[in-house]
Design a protein that fits this description.
alpha/beta; binds xanthosine-5'-monophosphate; globular; 41% helix
Protein backbone atom coordinates (compact mmCIF):
# COMPACT_ATOMS: atom_id res chain seq x y z
CA UNK A 1 0.00 0.00 0.00
CA UNK A 2 1.00 3.66 -0.23
CA UNK A 3 1.75 4.07 3.47
CA UNK A 4 3.76 0.87 3.67
CA UNK A 5 5.75 1.91 0.62
CA UNK A 6 6.52 5.24 2.22
CA UNK A 7 7.67 3.57 5.45
CA UNK A 8 10.06 1.49 3.35
CA UNK A 9 11.39 4.52 1.46
CA UNK A 10 11.85 6.50 4.64
CA UNK A 11 13.73 3.71 6.42
CA UNK A 12 15.89 2.90 3.39
CA UNK A 13 16.94 6.54 3.29
CA UNK A 14 17.62 6.63 7.04
CA UNK A 15 19.73 3.44 6.93
CA UNK A 16 21.81 4.77 4.01
CA UNK A 17 22.49 7.94 5.89
CA UNK A 18 23.41 6.13 9.10
CA UNK A 19 25.67 3.46 7.62
CA UNK A 20 27.35 5.52 4.90
CA UNK A 21 30.19 3.60 3.30
CA UNK A 22 30.72 1.17 6.18
CA UNK A 23 29.48 -2.38 6.63
CA UNK A 24 26.82 -4.02 8.74
CA UNK A 25 26.05 -7.47 10.12
CA UNK A 26 22.61 -8.90 10.83
CA UNK A 27 21.81 -12.12 12.61
CA UNK A 28 18.88 -14.03 11.13
CA UNK A 29 16.85 -16.18 13.51
CA UNK A 30 14.26 -17.44 11.05
CA UNK A 31 11.73 -15.10 12.68
CA UNK A 32 9.79 -12.26 11.10
CA UNK A 33 11.54 -9.32 12.75
CA UNK A 34 15.13 -10.14 11.87
CA UNK A 35 14.10 -11.14 8.33
CA UNK A 36 12.27 -7.87 7.66
CA UNK A 37 15.02 -5.77 9.27
CA UNK A 38 17.62 -7.54 7.12
CA UNK A 39 15.57 -7.15 3.94
CA UNK A 40 15.16 -3.42 4.58
CA UNK A 41 18.85 -2.89 5.25
CA UNK A 42 19.74 -5.00 2.21
CA UNK A 43 17.56 -2.75 0.09
CA UNK A 44 19.38 0.26 1.51
CA UNK A 45 23.03 -0.84 1.39
CA UNK A 46 23.17 -4.05 -0.68
CA UNK A 47 26.48 -5.91 -0.37
CA UNK A 48 27.63 -3.76 2.54
CA UNK A 49 25.37 -6.03 4.60
CA UNK A 50 26.25 -9.59 5.58
CA UNK A 51 23.70 -11.77 7.33
CA UNK A 52 24.60 -14.60 9.67
CA UNK A 53 22.40 -17.60 10.30
CA UNK A 54 23.41 -20.03 13.02
CA UNK A 55 21.83 -23.42 12.36
CA UNK A 56 21.56 -24.92 15.84
CA UNK A 57 19.79 -28.01 14.55
CA UNK A 58 16.72 -27.19 16.66
CA UNK A 59 14.60 -25.62 13.95
CA UNK A 60 11.36 -27.03 12.60
CA UNK A 61 11.05 -28.88 9.32
CA UNK A 62 11.91 -26.68 6.35
CA UNK A 63 12.80 -23.57 8.37
CA UNK A 64 16.52 -23.55 7.75
CA UNK A 65 15.92 -24.07 4.02
CA UNK A 66 13.48 -21.15 4.11
CA UNK A 67 16.26 -18.88 5.31
CA UNK A 68 19.02 -20.36 3.15
CA UNK A 69 17.04 -20.54 -0.07
CA UNK A 70 13.78 -18.56 -0.06
CA UNK A 71 14.99 -15.57 1.91
CA UNK A 72 18.18 -15.29 -0.11
CA UNK A 73 16.23 -15.68 -3.36
CA UNK A 74 13.75 -12.98 -2.34
CA UNK A 75 16.33 -10.45 -1.16
CA UNK A 76 19.66 -11.30 -2.80
CA UNK A 77 21.27 -10.89 0.59
CA UNK A 78 24.81 -12.03 1.35
CA UNK A 79 24.42 -14.86 3.85
CA UNK A 80 26.88 -16.75 5.99
CA UNK A 81 25.39 -19.98 7.31
CA UNK A 82 27.08 -21.73 10.21
CA UNK A 83 26.03 -25.36 10.64
CA UNK A 84 26.55 -25.85 14.35
CA UNK A 85 24.07 -28.65 15.01
CA UNK A 86 26.75 -31.15 16.12
CA UNK A 87 28.12 -28.66 18.56
CA UNK A 88 24.71 -27.90 20.07
CA UNK A 89 23.83 -31.59 20.36
CA UNK A 90 27.13 -32.32 22.06
CA UNK A 91 26.63 -29.46 24.51
CA UNK A 92 23.08 -30.63 25.27
CA UNK A 93 23.91 -34.32 25.66
CA UNK A 94 22.23 -35.83 28.71
CA UNK A 95 20.69 -32.52 29.86
CA UNK A 96 17.00 -32.67 30.86
CA UNK A 97 16.64 -29.61 33.05
CA UNK A 98 14.79 -26.86 31.14
CA UNK A 99 16.74 -23.91 32.54
CA UNK A 100 20.04 -25.67 31.91
CA UNK A 101 19.00 -26.40 28.33
CA UNK A 102 18.13 -22.75 27.80
CA UNK A 103 21.44 -21.60 29.26
CA UNK A 104 23.44 -24.00 27.14
CA UNK A 105 21.63 -23.12 23.93
CA UNK A 106 21.98 -19.39 24.63
CA UNK A 107 25.66 -19.70 25.47
CA UNK A 108 26.53 -21.78 22.42
CA UNK A 109 24.52 -19.47 20.22
CA UNK A 110 26.48 -16.40 21.35
CA UNK A 111 29.80 -18.20 20.91
CA UNK A 112 29.03 -19.37 17.39
CA UNK A 113 27.51 -16.04 16.37
CA UNK A 114 30.44 -14.06 17.72
CA UNK A 115 32.96 -16.26 15.96
CA UNK A 116 31.12 -15.77 12.65
CA UNK A 117 30.89 -12.06 13.33
CA UNK A 118 34.62 -11.83 14.04
CA UNK A 119 35.40 -13.58 10.76
CA UNK A 120 33.28 -11.11 8.85
CA UNK A 121 34.95 -8.20 10.64
CA UNK A 122 38.38 -9.63 9.83
CA UNK A 123 37.54 -10.16 6.16
CA UNK A 124 36.23 -6.63 5.55
CA UNK A 125 38.50 -4.23 3.66
CA UNK A 126 40.13 -1.70 5.98
CA UNK A 127 38.48 1.27 4.30
CA UNK A 128 35.05 -0.32 4.73
CA UNK A 129 35.03 -1.53 8.35
CA UNK A 130 32.11 -3.39 9.87
CA UNK A 131 30.69 -0.81 12.25
CA UNK A 132 27.00 -1.65 12.50
CA UNK A 133 24.82 -4.40 13.88
CA UNK A 134 21.25 -4.65 12.56
CA UNK A 135 18.53 -5.60 15.03
CA UNK A 136 14.83 -6.22 14.52
CA UNK A 137 13.75 -4.20 17.55
CA UNK A 138 10.05 -3.28 17.37
CA UNK A 139 8.23 -0.35 18.95
CA UNK A 140 6.88 -2.40 21.90
CA UNK A 141 10.48 -3.52 22.68
CA UNK A 142 11.64 0.11 22.60
CA UNK A 143 8.91 1.18 25.01
CA UNK A 144 9.58 -1.74 27.32
CA UNK A 145 13.29 -1.01 27.56
CA UNK A 146 12.91 2.73 28.20
CA UNK A 147 13.51 4.04 24.73
CA UNK A 148 17.30 4.33 24.44
CA UNK A 149 19.26 3.55 21.31
CA UNK A 150 22.78 2.44 21.61
CA UNK A 151 25.76 0.40 20.89
CA UNK A 152 26.35 -3.27 21.35
CA UNK A 153 29.58 -3.98 23.08
CA UNK A 154 30.45 -7.47 22.11
CA UNK A 155 33.19 -9.29 23.92
CA UNK A 156 34.91 -11.60 21.54
CA UNK A 157 36.81 -13.74 24.01
CA UNK A 158 35.93 -16.99 22.26
CA UNK A 159 37.20 -15.81 18.95
CA UNK A 160 40.00 -16.83 16.68
CA UNK A 161 43.28 -15.06 17.38
CA UNK A 162 44.45 -11.74 16.01
CA UNK A 163 41.18 -9.89 16.34
CA UNK A 164 40.35 -6.94 18.53
CA UNK A 165 39.32 -7.86 22.06
CA UNK A 166 36.12 -5.90 21.87
CA UNK A 167 34.21 -4.97 18.77
CA UNK A 168 31.91 -2.05 19.29
CA UNK A 169 28.97 -1.78 16.92
CA UNK A 170 26.42 0.95 16.42
CA UNK A 171 22.91 -0.47 16.27
CA UNK A 172 20.76 -0.15 13.18
CA UNK A 173 17.11 -0.63 14.14
CA UNK A 174 14.89 0.11 11.15
CA UNK A 175 11.73 -1.33 12.78
CA UNK A 176 11.85 0.80 15.93
CA UNK A 177 8.68 2.70 15.09
CA UNK A 178 6.64 -0.28 13.97
CA UNK A 179 4.20 -2.72 15.48
CA UNK A 180 4.17 -6.38 14.52
CA UNK A 181 1.37 -6.10 11.95
CA UNK A 182 3.18 -3.20 10.28
CA UNK A 183 6.39 -5.23 10.19
CA UNK A 184 4.52 -7.99 8.37
CA UNK A 185 3.19 -5.45 5.88
CA UNK A 186 6.67 -4.06 5.27
CA UNK A 187 7.96 -7.61 4.77
CA UNK A 188 5.24 -8.24 2.22
CA UNK A 189 6.04 -4.96 0.47
CA UNK A 190 9.68 -6.08 0.26
CA UNK A 191 8.62 -9.31 -1.45
CA UNK A 192 9.38 -11.76 1.36
CA UNK A 193 7.62 -15.14 1.16
CA UNK A 194 4.42 -15.59 3.18
CA UNK A 195 5.98 -18.48 5.10
CA UNK A 196 8.40 -15.98 6.64
CA UNK A 197 6.16 -12.91 6.89
CA UNK A 198 3.16 -14.71 8.42
CA UNK A 199 5.19 -16.99 10.65
CA UNK A 200 3.89 -17.58 14.16
CA UNK A 201 6.16 -17.05 17.19
CA UNK A 202 8.81 -19.71 17.74
CA UNK A 203 11.18 -19.69 20.70
CA UNK A 204 14.89 -19.03 20.20
CA UNK A 205 15.88 -22.36 21.86
CA UNK A 206 13.65 -24.04 19.29
CA UNK A 207 12.66 -27.69 19.56
CA UNK A 208 15.26 -28.08 22.31
CA UNK A 209 12.67 -26.88 24.85
CA UNK A 210 9.84 -28.93 23.32
CA UNK A 211 11.41 -32.26 24.18
CA UNK A 212 10.68 -33.13 27.80
CA UNK A 213 13.83 -35.10 28.58
CA UNK A 214 17.27 -35.01 27.02
CA UNK A 215 17.68 -33.76 23.47
CA UNK A 216 18.99 -36.23 20.90
CA UNK A 217 19.06 -36.18 17.12
CA UNK A 218 16.54 -39.06 16.95
CA UNK A 219 14.10 -37.31 19.27
CA UNK A 220 14.44 -34.08 17.29
CA UNK A 221 13.63 -35.96 14.10
CA UNK A 222 10.46 -37.45 15.62
CA UNK A 223 9.28 -34.13 16.97
CA UNK A 224 10.08 -32.36 13.71
CA UNK A 225 7.82 -34.77 11.78
CA UNK A 226 4.96 -34.56 14.28
CA UNK A 227 5.20 -30.76 14.36
CA UNK A 228 5.18 -30.52 10.57
CA UNK A 229 2.00 -32.61 10.40
CA UNK A 230 0.24 -30.46 13.00
CA UNK A 231 1.24 -27.28 11.17
CA UNK A 232 0.13 -28.67 7.80
CA UNK A 233 -3.30 -29.62 9.11
CA UNK A 234 -3.84 -26.33 10.94
CA UNK A 235 -2.93 -24.42 7.79
CA UNK A 236 -5.13 -26.64 5.62
CA UNK A 237 -8.03 -25.97 8.00
CA UNK A 238 -7.47 -22.22 7.66
CA UNK A 239 -6.74 -21.82 11.36
CA UNK A 240 -3.35 -20.06 11.24
CA UNK A 241 -4.84 -16.66 11.96
CA UNK A 242 -7.11 -17.91 14.76
CA UNK A 243 -4.42 -19.46 16.89
CA UNK A 244 -1.42 -17.66 18.33
CA UNK A 245 0.77 -20.75 18.04
CA UNK A 246 0.57 -24.49 18.57
CA UNK A 247 3.66 -26.02 20.10
CA UNK A 248 3.93 -29.79 19.75
CA UNK A 249 5.77 -31.27 22.71
CA UNK A 250 7.47 -34.67 22.78
CA UNK A 251 7.32 -36.47 26.13
CA UNK A 252 10.52 -38.30 25.40
CA UNK A 253 10.92 -39.98 28.79
CA UNK A 254 7.33 -41.27 28.85
CA UNK A 255 6.18 -44.42 27.09
CA UNK A 256 2.79 -45.99 26.87
CA UNK A 257 1.41 -49.21 25.46
CA UNK A 258 -0.50 -49.13 22.22
CA UNK A 259 -1.54 -51.40 19.40
CA UNK A 260 -1.04 -50.99 15.71
CA UNK A 261 -2.13 -53.64 13.23
CA UNK A 262 -1.61 -56.85 15.20
CA UNK A 263 1.36 -55.58 17.10
CA UNK A 264 1.78 -54.13 20.53
CA UNK A 265 3.65 -50.83 20.53
CA UNK A 266 5.47 -49.06 23.32
CA UNK A 267 5.94 -45.53 22.09
CA UNK A 268 6.04 -41.91 23.13
CA UNK A 269 3.20 -39.42 23.49
CA UNK A 270 3.14 -35.94 22.02
CA UNK A 271 1.13 -33.05 23.42
CA UNK A 272 -0.64 -30.50 21.23
CA UNK A 273 -0.60 -27.06 22.82
CA UNK A 274 -2.78 -24.78 20.66
CA UNK A 275 -3.30 -21.38 22.29
CA UNK A 276 -5.00 -18.12 21.50
CA UNK A 277 -3.44 -14.96 22.85
CA UNK A 278 -2.93 -11.23 22.26
CA UNK A 279 0.62 -10.87 23.48
CA UNK A 280 1.70 -14.23 24.98
CA UNK A 281 1.55 -12.79 28.51
CA UNK A 282 -1.71 -14.61 29.04
CA UNK A 283 -3.26 -17.25 26.82
CA UNK A 284 -6.26 -19.50 26.56
CA UNK A 285 -6.25 -22.99 25.10
CA UNK A 286 -7.79 -22.96 21.63
CA UNK A 287 -11.03 -24.83 21.09
CA UNK A 288 -9.91 -26.50 17.89
CA UNK A 289 -12.57 -28.33 15.86
CA UNK A 290 -12.68 -32.03 16.73
CA UNK A 291 -12.26 -33.09 13.11
CA UNK A 292 -9.00 -31.12 12.85
CA UNK A 293 -7.74 -32.68 16.08
CA UNK A 294 -8.73 -36.10 14.76
CA UNK A 295 -6.83 -35.62 11.50
CA UNK A 296 -3.71 -34.44 13.32
CA UNK A 297 -3.88 -37.39 15.71
CA UNK A 298 -4.46 -39.99 12.99
CA UNK A 299 -1.71 -38.66 10.78
CA UNK A 300 0.91 -38.34 13.53
CA UNK A 301 0.33 -41.87 14.85
CA UNK A 302 0.25 -43.32 11.32
CA UNK A 303 3.22 -41.44 9.93
CA UNK A 304 5.58 -41.25 12.90
CA UNK A 305 6.17 -44.83 13.98
CA UNK A 306 7.60 -44.11 17.45
CA UNK A 307 4.68 -41.90 18.48
CA UNK A 308 1.59 -43.87 19.51
CA UNK A 309 -0.47 -41.34 21.42
CA UNK A 310 -1.55 -37.72 20.84
CA UNK A 311 -2.83 -35.67 23.77
CA UNK A 312 -4.30 -32.16 24.06
CA UNK A 313 -3.21 -29.56 26.60
CA UNK A 314 -6.32 -27.74 27.93
CA UNK A 315 -4.54 -25.43 30.37
CA UNK A 316 -4.71 -21.63 30.24
CA UNK A 317 -1.76 -19.31 30.91
CA UNK A 318 -1.60 -18.77 33.81
CA UNK A 319 -1.18 -21.27 35.36
CA UNK A 320 0.51 -23.09 32.47
CA UNK A 321 3.08 -21.33 30.31
CA UNK A 322 2.70 -21.68 26.55
CA UNK A 323 5.86 -23.72 26.20
CA UNK A 324 6.37 -26.73 28.42
CA UNK A 325 9.94 -25.75 29.34
P1 LIG B 1 5.80 -18.95 27.65
O1 LIG B 1 6.19 -20.39 27.52
O2 LIG B 1 6.68 -18.21 28.61
O3 LIG B 1 6.05 -18.30 26.24
O4 LIG B 1 4.35 -18.77 27.97
C1 LIG B 1 5.60 -17.02 25.86
C2 LIG B 1 5.97 -16.77 24.41
O5 LIG B 1 7.38 -16.63 24.28
C3 LIG B 1 7.91 -17.62 23.42
N1 LIG B 1 9.19 -18.04 24.00
C4 LIG B 1 10.38 -17.61 23.58
N2 LIG B 1 10.73 -16.80 22.56
N3 LIG B 1 13.01 -17.08 23.10
C5 LIG B 1 12.03 -16.55 22.32
O6 LIG B 1 12.37 -15.84 21.37
C6 LIG B 1 12.74 -17.89 24.15
O7 LIG B 1 13.63 -18.36 24.84
C7 LIG B 1 11.36 -18.17 24.39
N4 LIG B 1 10.72 -18.93 25.32
C8 LIG B 1 9.38 -18.84 25.05
C9 LIG B 1 6.87 -18.72 23.37
O8 LIG B 1 6.95 -19.49 22.18
C10 LIG B 1 5.59 -17.91 23.49
O9 LIG B 1 5.25 -17.35 22.23
Amino acid sequence: SWTTASIVDEQVEAVREQVGGKRAICGLSGGVDSAVAAALVQKAIGTQLTCVYVDHGLMRKGETEQVEKDFVAATGVQLKVVDASERFLAALAGVSDPEQKRKIIGREFIRVFEAAQAEIVAEAPSDEPVAFLVQGTLYPDVVESGGGTGTANIKSHHNVGGLPEDIEFQLVEPLRKLFKDEVRMVGQELGLPDEIVQRQPFPGPGLGIRIVGAVTRERLDLLREADAIAREELTAAGLDRDIWQCPVVLLADVRSVGVQGDARTYGHPVVLRPVSSEDAMTADWSRLPYDVLARISTRITNEVAEINRVTLDVTSKPPGTIEWE
